[in-house]
Amino acid sequence: SSSSSGLGADAGLEIRTRSVEQTLVPLVSQITTLINHKDKPKRSDKTLQAIQRVGQAVNLAVGRFVTVGEAIANENHELKEEMSVACIEARRAGETIAQLTDVASLDHPESDSHITIFTDKTGVVKAARLLLSSVTKVLVLADRIVIKQIITSRNKVLATMEQLEKVSSFQEFVQIFSQFGNEMVEFAHLTGDRQNDLKDEKKKARMAASRAVLEKCTMMLLTASKTCLRHPDCESARINKDGVFHRMRLALEQVIEIVTDSRPNGENEMAPISIYSGIKEFKNKVEGLRENLYFLSKENLSTMLEVILEHTEDFTDSAYTSHEHREHILELSKQAKMELEQLVSVWMQAQNQKTKDLMEDLEVAILKTCQCMNELKREVHSAATSLAADLLKYHTDHMVLKALKITGVEGNLEAVAEYTCKLSEQKEQLVEMCRLLRHVSGTEPLEITCIHAEDTFQVTGPQIISAAETLALHPSSKIAKENLEVFCEAWESQLSDMSLLLREINDVFEGRRGEKRVYLSLPRPGKHNANLKALKPVKLDTEEQAKIAKLGLELHLLTSDVDSETEKWEDQENEIVQHGQGMSSMAYSMYLFTRGEGLLKTTQDLFHQAEIFATEGTKLASALHVLSDQVHDDDKPLLLLEAEKLISMCKQLQITAKASAQGKSATFTKVDACILKTRNVMTLLCQLLPLCCKLLRKNKAGNGCLKPAPPWKEDRIRTGTNARTPERRVDTFGIKSLENHVTNMTFLESK
């Protein structure tokens, strides 16, 4: 019964964070090794010892793990009971596995009355299931404690914010803001760790957007509150301050929604589908007809197209879309309807009689429909990005903001009113630009970044206006002037973010990953590989893509891990970081190849990329040798050992990539081997990068090469990375400035 209760426990346990997942992975692989042993293996001493070693290792690991779990339980009374039960179950299962694998001392296990893995395989399976479910439960309970810490921290921040809103004297404000600053620093640290730990890229991007709002608003809250205290009877100053508090509350709420995975009003605030994702889904369904003529109805396809075409009205109805783009979009919409009609007609006939001619006609109809959708996608992409490029170019001089600052200081209310109208127009243009860009952003995290940008312009525009009006009414007020500066800076910073966002959207559209394009050295015809002529360049077909999907996904996750490791180095010019980023960039393009996307178009491109990747790895190994001369003697052997491992793995990859492969099956096997070996090198790289950082820190040899990332700065801009993690784009001034404010708050301008 204990095992059945264990099995039930994991049904509701969804693993949302990398740290929990990575703790479980090694345990799962050890247990899988035990369960998958052959029922009648050659029972050599070596086999028996190996089985016993794995069993004991599992038990020891569980013992250590449970000790930590019990310590957590003792500190958190409300979870103590649940945690203790899970710990007892895990310990018991670990001991059972150790007993069942206690086989090394048995000469003839089958004749012995002692029950072992050989006589009771179901016992091991039961114990393994119970162990995994109880360990997962311990991890998820520990995770709940982290969530609780974040909620408690948020509640502290909210309570102090309420006090701040009500203060009427500078002295009181200084005192409470100092406390508020410390609480915000704590909240920033907790949520920053959580953001990095989330597995879901979409949630990560939403979290980054909310944290960026909180960070910017902390500074705004300071100047807006000071302005209100300085000018207590000024209506525009009060409106300005209320806007900041309201936005902060919304952002705090969103962080908690993401952390607790709940929405108070259901899912209704989810963004509507974008044209880009609509077309992608529609094409998948259309191409699916090749394998199965009966898996969806014609009404289903027609509805999907209708939804896409409805969304194109955002472009055709927009005052900012050029006449030429509007005409092209309307033409392509009309053509898409005709192509679908033709496709449905042939498809219905093929359902009745599957003749060779009809299947050929169907293939032509599928290709023409997909081609038309690609053209439509290209047209809306061009319309959105050209509008964005024009607007960003036009508004980079910040003329309106400069004019507002000047006329505000002059106390010229009439001129301020005129320029606030211009700013409102500019805001409408930029909001429209964000809406259109969202349709073509290409990834969910980038979509979220577009929505965040739209909100920022929507909210910051009116806040600049109320700050400018306050200054115009009190032209000699230093604090009102400083307040307007803060809001104008937020606007300018969002505008400069838009240029980076636009670049990332274009990179995704063109299958590029980021700025550091130098690593992608594609083969030129006739220049590389002697056997190039003998090989017909091929892509992977759908079946092969499906087979290799899991491996590709693992490679994708590893590139994220390597990126976040390289991001921790302050010295981005360090040779180890440069090679690491290069390898990550290439591994990502190889992952895209497994999906039939990106710049590597044929298997030959992939093999050449694998060779370049291996060369880059060998260069990184040389950099490790250089580093080994700088570290203490105790650390040297470990570093050299890792460097040798890397050289050996890269050599193997080189050999595989250069090996000849004739025929479809052999080529796929070679692709599979290249991706697998690339994944292994990336796994090693994930261990190497933090090790090198640790050694450099220990030796202080890198002139402070490493610094702990400030809590708001996980989002800083990374050139040479890709659009998968747009949350890093958020422009930040780092929590340092906030910590400085807290220490400098002892004196506030009160005149």
TrEMBL record:
The keyword Transmembrane does not apply. InterPro entries: Alpha-catenin/vinculin-like_sf (IPR036723), Alpha_catenin (IPR001033), CTNNAL1 (IPR030045), Vinculin/catenin (IPR006077). GO terms for biological process: cell adhesion; Rho protein signal transduction. Keywords: Cytoplasm. Gene3D superfamilies: Alpha-catenin/vinculin-like. One of its GO terms (cellular component) is cytoplasm. Pfam families: Vinculin. Signal peptide: none annotated. It comes from the Eukaryota. It is found in: Cytoplasm. One of its GO terms (molecular function) is cadherin binding. PANTHER family: ALPHA-CATULIN (PTHR46342:SF1). Belongs to the vinculin/alpha-catenin family. This is Alpha-catulin. It comes from Oriolus oriolus. The lineage of its organism: Eukaryota, Metazoa, Chordata, Craniata, Vertebrata.
